[in-house]
Amino acid sequence: MSDDTLVKVSPRHAVRLAQEYTAIIEKPRRDDFVVRTVARKTANGTPLMSAEIVIAGRETREKFPLADEFPLHFRKTHFPGHLHGDPGVEFARHGDASGIIGIPPPIGFDERTFRACLLPGTPLHALSPFHGDPEDIHLRQARELALVAAAGHWKLAELAFEALGTLHAGGLVHGDAVLQNFIVCPSPLEILPIDFEGSARKDELADDEWQKRVQSDMDELLRHAVYLLCALGRQPGALAEAALGNIDRLLRSPDRFRQAIERGAEFEG
Question: Can you give the pTM of this predicted structure?
Answer without folding.
Answer: 0.93
